[in-house]
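We modelled the chain as a single entity of 562 amino acids. Its sequence is:
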Amino acid sequence: MGNIFLDLTVIIVIASVFSIIFRFFRQPEILAYILTGIVISAFPVFGAPNKEFLQTLSELGVTLLLFMVGLEIRISELKSIGKVLIFSSIGQIILTFVFGFLLSTLFRYDFITSIYVATALTFSSTIIVIKLISDQREMHSLHAKFSLGILLFQDIAAIFFLMFLSGFSLQTGGLISVLNLVVILLKAAILFAGIILLSQKVLPKIINFIAKSPEVLFLASLAWVFGLAAIVSSKYLGFSIEIGGFLAGIALANSVVSYQIIAKAKILRDFFIVIFFVLLGVQMSFANIGVVLLPAIILSLFVLIVKPIIVMGIFSVMGFRKRTSFLTGVSLSQISEFSLILIFLGFKLGHISQNTVSMITLVGLITFAVSTYLITHWKNLYKRMATKIDFIERANLKKDLIFETDENLDFINDHVVVIGGDQMGETIVEALEDKDREVIIVDFDPNMIKKYESRKVHRLFGDISDLDIQQRAKIDDAKLVISTIPDIQDNLLLLRELKHENRRAKVVVMALDSKDANELYKEGADYVVLPHLAGGRQIAKIIIDDNLDAIENLRNKDKNYL
């Protein structure tokens, strides 16, 4: 127990120091966690880490992460983009594998090794991408939905590929039987059907009963996710605990308390995810670095540049805007943790050499680091690249435009632009409708745009940081611009653009803390909404006016909204 406590202490202290340093230089924290693992494994003064214990903690983190992803997914939402996901996922896997295989043969790898290398390059990291997109609060954006769908498709393919490899080795020449494959597919079908049935008939009643106590709800949610993960990963079903965590989230996604569960589990998830990335750094192997360095660099460039271009090309052919294509492609610019597992299993089975393992490990380190930076700063990257990637946008766009009104917005002026239609945005739109004001609602969540289909507002699907969306929303002719999104970078970009285009418009933006609020005021915001101040002032006004009956009216309005 003492050694385990010491291991955790060393990890937390070093990770904290590196995180502070990386934060100071505005670099992603994930890189600090990976570097922590590399430092711990490289310097014996810290002692040999207990890899089995760290592996257990990291699996808990991955399970919780995918559980929360499942909680935020509505199956009905994925149905609307289901065909797109199938075609784009299959196209990405096939094209990346083919190009990766051809590139591997240029290094004179044998056939089996080229198969392993190409497969490893094909997959992308669900954990890294979801963590970064979640941190940026963009899980409901269209490009995030596409990225998540492709990643889940990849993970399923990777799991089946690993199952296949577990029954095949060069020594025995044994292949997984058709019967075993049929059994696996049958188990998966029964498992998914059972989860869907539970989510519709049983779990809502149980969750509604225990939701009265936040502590019991949190504990019961953990029991559900870990219990289901244990069952799914048992020898009787044979799937991974990651799949179990994801299915546990899917089962509770339609619950009215799903967001409450997310809020409770977030801190616990973040702690265990730190351990996952530290363990990833610990497991990095750099044997024969001189031999594998050049192939690793070239293959890393393939993953960082060619792989996103393949994704962009697929989405361009399917008629999406260059922004959606670009952001989806950039999000897949790394290999997967499954890639490392695949390579380690291939080495264990005697299919590939230690040099290949070291080379793919180095590719993982490079692409994890660079892609993390790209995803974290993808809006600025897109802004710089927008004019250079016009060629990936077709003239006859289809897919992105199905979420906006077909009417011409050129005649509108002196209107109100509301950015973000959820929660606060909906309340503002209702008030503007009562005043018969012309309103353009801008949101990057297609389901939010559809929500306003029957309302008397003009709908525009897109991200306000996109200059094209700003032009189409006619912010230069607007009388009032209201941003209900708390993203400081988007709001700063909006204010800077309005300085050049239209300073007569009053601009109201939202911030979550006083530091961001001060920065927005310095940039020229007319008013910054701070939720805690707004709520306090509303209650204070009721007290000053001695109008306690207003509390009941507010409660009724809030309950109707909820």
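As a brief sanity check on the tokenised model: Residues 11 and 500 are 48 Å apart (CA to CA). DSSP finds 25 helices and six strands in the chain.
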